[in-house]
Design the sequence.
């Protein structure tokens, strides 16, 4: 009898362990084992080619696939979905969202001239509206100065207002970090808050994104990838920001935000559930306002938009800096998202994002 009870106990323990194993390998909500296999197949060849970075795919319930490979800091730290990465120009969507939040609060109109929000706007730039800045149609050149250059908000505004435009206002799309820096300045002027504080309180905190920002989060215990080949004497983007003593307006609003794959999935969920921005505001952001080129790409507010005949449009943005590359692709109607980030290596994140995007259609 005692032996029988022992066998029964062993059987029940083994059954419990088997169930836990099945649970840990089961697909996430709304995902099949075949889809997981497709995801694995899509990324494995690139990992074998040397991809170093982090990948996450999410639906409207949360992450459904993730994979990290390689080292963020050589000989010290491996990549994971909690690795803090430089998302570069993917940052622009947060700036656009901040503007739209101010629109919701009745403090800004995108049709208003920027002279409503920036003092001493010269006559030659009086026709520029907030909409022009959001859609890269204000006529500014690409950038004002180098990322590592110390420049205050007042200095940035003054120099931007003094420089000649390279195109007429509203004449054509011309990608400009200057325009998005001015949008960040407008957020501060109108809200009375530091740009990063406004982002956190009104957009990031409601989404549960506590590992996203410039210098507000405590990065001291976090892994931030380091490049082998120094840029301007810096091995990481955090070193660069700290060296500016807070005066990094060549980056603020246009790039340089740090985040994690996990937080970028939270951002996706927050937008879908309207936790921080209304559906109407998001539709303005995802509207193909202006043609980027002849390849079928358009620009919304902080997002690139790709209309697809008979299918929902792809909204996406990429980013590239001296310290990292990132791809953020979304299908809002289907509730699907892809995020891929890396800092070194021969494999571009775009290839993995594209392979995953194709696998979603299978």
Sequence:
């Amino acid at each position: 009898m005692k032996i029988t009870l022992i066998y029964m106990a062993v059987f029940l323990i083994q059954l419990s362990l088997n169930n836990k194993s099945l649970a840990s390998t089961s697909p996430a909500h709304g995902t099949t084992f075949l889809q997981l296999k497709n995801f694995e197949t899509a990324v494995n060849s690139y990992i074998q080619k040397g991809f170093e970075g982090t990948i996450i795919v999410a639906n409207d319930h949360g992450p459904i696939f993730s994979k990290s490979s390689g080292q963020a800091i050589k000989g010290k730290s491996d990549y994971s979905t909690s690795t803090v990465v430089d998302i570069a120009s993917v940052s622009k969507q947060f700036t656009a969202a901040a503007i739209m939040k101010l629109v919701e609060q009745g403090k800004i109109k995108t049709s208003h001239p920027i002279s409503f929000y920036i003092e001493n706007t010269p006559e030659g730039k009086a026709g520029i509206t907030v909409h022009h800045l959001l859609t890269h149609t204000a006529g500014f050149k690409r950038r004002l100065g180098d990322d590592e250059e110390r420049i205050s908000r007042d200095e940035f505004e003054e120099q931007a207002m003094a420089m000649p435009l390279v195109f007429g206002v509203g004449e054509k799309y011309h990608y400009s970090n200057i325009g998005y820096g001015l949008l960040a300045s407008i957020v501060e002027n109108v809200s009375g808050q530091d740009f990063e504080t406004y982002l956190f309180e009104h957009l990031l905190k409601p989404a549960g994104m506590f590992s996203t920002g410039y210098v507000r989060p405590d990065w001291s215990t976090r892994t931030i990838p380091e490049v082998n080949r120094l840029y301007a004497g810096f091995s990481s983007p955090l070193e660069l920001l700290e060296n500016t003593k807070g005066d990094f307006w060549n980056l603020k609003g246009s790039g340089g935000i740090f985040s994690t794959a996990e937080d970028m999935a939270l951002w996706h969920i927050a937008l879908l559930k309207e936790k921080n921005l209304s559906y109407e505001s998001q539709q303005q952001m995802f509207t193909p306002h202006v043609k980027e080129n002849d390849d079928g790409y358009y620009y919304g507010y902080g997002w690139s938009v790709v209309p697809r005949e008979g299918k929902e449009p792809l909204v996406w943005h990429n980013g590239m800096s001296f310290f990292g590359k990132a791809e953020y692709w979304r299908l809002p109607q289907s509730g699907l998202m892809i995020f891929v980030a890396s800092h070194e290596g021969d494999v571009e994140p775009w290839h993995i994002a594209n392979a995953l995007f194709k696998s979603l259609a299978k």
The radius of gyration is 23 Å.
